[in-house]
Each structure stands twice: as C-alpha cells, then as structure tokens.
Amino acid sequence: MAWSGDKIGAAQEGKQEVEVPAFGDFKVASVDSHPEENRVDIYFSDPLEEDQDFNGLVTISNTDNAFRFAAEGQVLRVYLPTLCRGSKR
Questions:
Q1: What is the DSSP string of the chain?
Q2: 51: alpha, beta or left, given left = phi > 0 and alpha = psi -120 to 50?
Q3: What is the pTM of this model?
Q4: How far apart are CA 42 and CA 31, in angstroms?
Q5: Do the Cβ atoms of 41 and 32 come closer than 8 Å?
Q6: What are the tens digits of pLDDT across the range 21-51?
Q7: CA distance readout (Å), 81 to 4, 32, 58, 71, 74
Q8: Max alpha carbon distance in the chain (Å)?
C-alpha cells in the first residue's frame, strides 16, 4: 500500500506492505498491548463469534491464564487480572 498527500497539499507520503489473507484463511492479523488498561487486543482476519468461549484458546507465559474476554468484530480484547510487563509469548 502506498499513499501520498500531494492532491491535498500535504507533504506526507509513505509505503507499507500489508498481508491480505485468502478468503477463509482464519489467522491472527496483529496484536496490540495496552498496559495502561491491562489489556491485549488480538486482531483476526475474520469476525469472531461474540458468545464463543475463549478460555484456553489464549495463553500468555508466566500468567495463570485467568483472563476476561470481549469479542468485538474481528478484535478479541483480552483483559489480564494483574499487571503484565516485559516481553511475553
């Protein structure tokens, strides 16, 4: 993907490679952490079922994996019970 602000008089331009998964290829698209809210957002290629039981499907090293979940479209918000710092898998 490439963009340029020339048409609106802006000096910004750039380019970024974006992977677009094939139709029906359900996968994790990206992950964002929000330490100020003890939350991790996992973005998927397809929408999630909001009433699905996500327990056991998400694990984070050095935690008890007792999370609270909220599915909103293609985003799974994972709320951690305690502050989690550093790099985790």
A1: -EEE-GGGT---EEE-----PPTT---EEEEEEEGGGTEEEEEESSPPPTT---TTT---TTS----EEEEETTEEEEE-SS---S---
A2: alpha
A3: 0.69
A4: 5
A5: yes
A6: 677 788 899 999 888 888 999 999 999 998 8
A7: 43, 17, 14, 17, 23
A8: 52
